[in-house]
Amino acid sequence: RVQVHESGGMLVKAGGSLRLSCTTSGLLGDDYALGWFRQAPGKEREAISCMSLSSGAKYYVYAENGRLTISRNNANNTLHLQMGSLKPDDTGMYYCAALEWTWKGLVQCKPQEYKYWGSGTQVTVSS
Asked: Residue 16 gets which letter from DSSP?
């Protein structure tokens, strides 16, 4: 079965950087999309960025001028989210999720479409 596990969340000061990691197991081939999602206190879960494993297509929900970068290390099947110039508004529980996905050139990034979820990693940005 597919399992997802996030790590790397911590308390950081505003302006700092952080790299989150997501490891997966049980994926059969590359016909999947992987995504990063955030749930801030009192708010709904929202998408941040998603990636198609087969095509490499990436989607960023917000244009952050390079502040966020999604990438995958294929050697160890680890998805990363590099975040820079962190702001208190970035505070929240960050989730990684996976979805069976075969479309080329497009990537689904709606959280309600994702099937396999990790338990999340907490990011807190202090001002």
From this structure: -
